[in-house]
Specification:
The chain has eleven helices and ten strands. The chain has two domains: 4-258, Rossmann fold (3-Layer(aba) Sandwich), CATH 3.40.50.1820; 283-353, no CATH class. Helix 3 links the parallel strand 1 (45-50) and strand 2. By secondary structure, the chain is of the alpha/beta class. The strands form two sheets. Strands 2-1-3-4-6-5 form a six-stranded parallel β-sheet, sandwiched between helices.
């Protein structure tokens, strides 16, 4: 639960995230071609820029726009295509105060809507453009949504992630890029996390692909701030992620990850199938799924793990010490065994789970 200071921070500065997204491109460089947002032009790299609270539909975040331009200069405009969220991200003081209170509406609903869109986008892309690679960029509310979806599983097509002002910022994670504006004198606040609590690394969260930028005195990724700090800095430290070379530095880091050639490797051929004719599992699992509004189409369990298919998603659970979700895999994933392996499911369990 948030302390009083964190709640005061979000309520007092609720309008600042909207201001931060008010400048930046007003239209996506390529509007989504279908409901999931996956494009059909099949550039080598698709940069998905997820904007912050209050931003209009098809709006690039300021830092994401600079980052995209840098990558297009390093590769070419034809190789890097930019896609943005096709709807507004909820913002405003009341909405963000609700975020601090963890109310199941307003900000929370906006994050869930963005996550659903991004997840469907990532699931559709391999079928439309099997060789395309993805770079995920998120600012503020968008950083929270991007980080959440990226942590769900090891998305094979994702080659890099950049977060700016993440409300779930985790100072202890290796993705941490903390600074007093890009060139810090000395890190003063060493143990502050985001206003919505620090992101906890999971098995599928490969932090080596991630850079998470947070400015000291940024009330979104550093909390709680004192009343003096809130008055002195206000929204300035959350709105200045384009002024100190951080998007440029992130672009160089990404180029180091993907290589200067810009030639993605072809995707593997489909291998294996999901056991869509199986229907088993402990009763407690189905009670939990019902409480989370997941309607199973099929399920497959052994004593330690369960996989559950619902619509176009496969949910992976460990069940030997309580029921805990380990991540999700698209139903159309090319190699189910590989996907389960990336979620640290042991091979003997994989063989049992995938048996017809």
């Amino acid at each position: 639960m948030f302390g009083k200071t964190k709640l005061q921070t979000w309520a007092a500065l609720g309008g600042c995230v909207c201001a931060a997204t008010g400048f930046g491109a007003q239209n996506s460089k390529s509007a989504p071609a279908n409901e999931s947002g996956a494009t059909t032009s099949c550039s080598d790299y698709n940069l998905i820029d997820v904007h912050g609270s209050g931003a209009a539909s098809y709006t690039e975040s300021p830092a994401g726009s600079v980052l995209a331009e840098q990558l297009q200069m390093s590769l070419s405009p034809k190789q890097v295509e930019v896609d943005t969220v096709p709807f507004e991200a909820a913002g405003g003081p009341i909405t963000l105060a609700g975020a601090a209170l963890k109310l199941p509406r307003g900000y929370h609903q906006s994050v869930v809507k963005i996550k659903n869109w991004l997840r469907e986008w990532l699931q559709a892309l391999p079928g439309d453009c099997p060789n395309a690679k993805v770079i995920l960029v998120g600012y503020s509310q968008g950083a929270q949504a991007v980080g959440d979806v990226y942590q769900e599983r090891a998305w094979k097509q994702v080659v890099g992630v950049v977060l700016f002002g993440d409300p779930y910022y985790n100072h202890a994670d290796s993705s941490d890029r903390f600074g007093l504006n890009f060139q810090p004198k000395q890190r003063i606040k060493t143990k502050l996390d985001g206003a919505l609590v620090g992101r906890k690394p999971r098995d599928a969260f490969n932090s080596s692909l991630v850079q998470s930028y947070c400015h000291q005195e940024d009330f979104v990724c550093q909390a709680p701030l004192s009343k003096y700090e809130l008055v002195r800095y206000g929204k300035s430290q959350h709105n200045n992620y384009t002024g100190f070379g951080e998007p440029e530095k992130a672009a160089k880091y990404l180029m180091g990850l993907i290589g200067s050639s810009g030639s993605p490797k072809p995707s593997p051929k489909p291998l294996g199938k999901w056991p869509t004719n199986r229907h088993d599992g402990p009763p407690a699992l189905f009670l939990m799924l019902g409480a989370n509004f997941i309607s199973p189409d099929w399920s497959s369990c052994d004593p330690a793990y369960c996989i559950v298919g619902s619509d176009n998603t496969v949910y992976v659970f460990s069940v030997d010490q309580g029921i805990n979700e380990k991540g999700t895999i698209p139903l159309g994933y090319t190699d189910p065994a590989e996907g389960l392996g990336e979620l640290k499911v042991p091979k003997p369990d994989i063989d049992k789970l995938l048996a017809p």
